[in-house]
Amino acid sequence: MSGTFVGMPAFPEAAREAVDNQTLRGNLRHATHTIRAKRAKAVAEVSDWAQLREAGKQIKDHTLRHLDRYLVQVEESVTAAGGIVHWAADAEEANRIVADLVKETGEPEVVKVKSMATQEIGLNEALEAEGIRAYETDLAELIVQLGKDRPSHILVPAIHRNRGEIRDIFTHEMSEWGRPAPEGLTDTPAELADAARLHLREKFLRAKVGISGANFMVAETGTMVVVESEGNGRMCLTLPETLISVVGIEKIVPTWRDLEVFLQTLPRSSTAERMNPYTSMWTGTTDADGPRTFHLILLDNGRTDTLADEVGRQALRCIRCSACLNVCPVYERAGGHAYGSVYPGPIGAILSPQLRGTASAIDASLPYASSLCGACYEVCPVAIDIPEVLVHLRERVVEGGPVTRDGNKVVLKPAKGHAAERAAMRAARWAFSRPGALRTGQRLASRTRRFHPRTLPGPGGAWSDTRDLPPVPAEPFRDWWQRTRGGNDDKGTAK
């Protein structure tokens, strides 16, 4: 994934710094609460939302089970429509393909549609290294680029910025990238949007190469789909002579009928709109309209490994709506940068460690960046059980990561160490399988409660450093039950 986040600290350290930033927390609180309230209202309008949610889940699961077949169908359909398909195993290969394609045109610059996949692979940095300048045209992405910043939200990358900060960025940075901001620019939304429009218009009109991702690929026709709210995507997709789309292999839907489900759930879950203001679809090329050359780069970059994990693969259902970010109490307080990935929030906490592995401190910490409250699962339009995957990935981290493969089965290589934890689990299993020993232990714990430590020793200290140990009651539940309800069976178990 992108080198932009290399060297970032683990989540606890990054989050600790973020929560001390009161401006950041205020920006996030206002934005996420506003978006979540609008989304709830938009979803409540749909009487069959639960059925649409289940349909989206089933379509995605079916596609992932048969992804090999649908990928071949996409390639055949796009090729038949006049497009050219490339396969990229990782970020390095995808960046090399894009750079070579741009160089073939002889153009020194490209315009870009907002794309998580190109951020994931660090495409802008890779193109810059090749002497090619990439211009972001989405308003929020433009703010991030001009501010030499990093995105912090899937839908609203500049959610951590307020209007005053945006005005300052436009005033001081726009001139280095093209048309400067107007004199006397204020922080009113209308003036900021107009400044961005004027700045970008000249880039649209001279651009010869456009780069995009895609929200969906329709296998039966080879059609690419991009949904957006501003119209900048439509400009990038239609005006350039060459269009290059970098798309994750999981973005496939089999048929046009399947697409209909997501065009209802995505806008309501993301922007709280009944439908997207701009839904652009293109199938290959045509002599009458649009780019003369279309290249599709199918990106793996860890997705095949994720697909092999029976629990973790559900993260590949994600349609990038960002609803889970807007309800997450951890994201609201820590912000997106603390996740060290272009995929922040709950979905990033399960997607990034699978795409990148859990060898680094940041990726090993992400499965713990959650309270497991379940709000993310409740709002997900494709029913990704994020808490389930978080717990699953915590197991992987504890067991020691690297994943090996035995045929089609994922096998976790046991880690050295963690002996104390394994010993504790064996002791617990022994006690819970012997009611008499468990009863004796409970009574002993109650009678010695005043001598119990406030923190755990050894490896357990990491747990009790941030949590209070629950007090042991003065009387075990079994004894209370016997005293108040009366009687035990012959096995010493309360009736």
Write a structural description:
The chain is built from 23 helices and twelve strands. Strand 5 (216-218) and strand 6 (223-228) form a beta hairpin. It is 49% helix and 11% strand. Helix 2 (22-44) crosses helix 12 (256-270), helix 3 (49-65) crosses helix 12 and helix 9 (163-177) runs parallel beside helix 10. The chain starts with 10 loop residues before the first helix and ends in a 10-residue tail after the last helix.
Topology of helices and strands:
Elements: H1 11-19, H2 22-44, H3 49-65, H4 67-80, E1 84-88, H5 91-105, E2 109-112, H6 116-120, H7 123-129, E3 133-136, H8 139-146, H9 163-177, H10 189-206, E4 209-212, E5 216-218, E6 223-228, H11 232-238, E7 242-248, E8 252-253, H12 256-270, E9 278-283, E10 293-299, H13 303-307, H14 323-327, H15 329-334, H16 345-356, H17 361-365, H18 375-379, H19 386-399, E11 403-406, E12 409-412, H20 419-432, H21 435-447, H22 461-464, H23 477-485
Parallel strand pairs: 1-10, 2-3, 2-4, 4-7, 5-8, 7-10
Antiparallel strand pairs: 5-6, 6-9, 11-12
Helix pairs in contact: 2-12, 3-12, 9-10, 16-19
Briefly summarize what is shown.
This protein is an alpha/beta fold and 495 residues long. It has helices at residues 11-19, 22-44, 49-65, 67-80, 91-105, 116-120, 123-129, 139-146, 163-177, 189-206, 232-238, 256-270, 303-307, 323-327, 329-334, 345-356, 361-365, 375-379, 386-399, 419-432, 435-447, 461-464, 477-485, and strands spanning 84-88, 109-112, 133-136, 209-212, 216-218, 223-228, 242-248, 252-253, 278-283, 293-299, 403-406, 409-412.
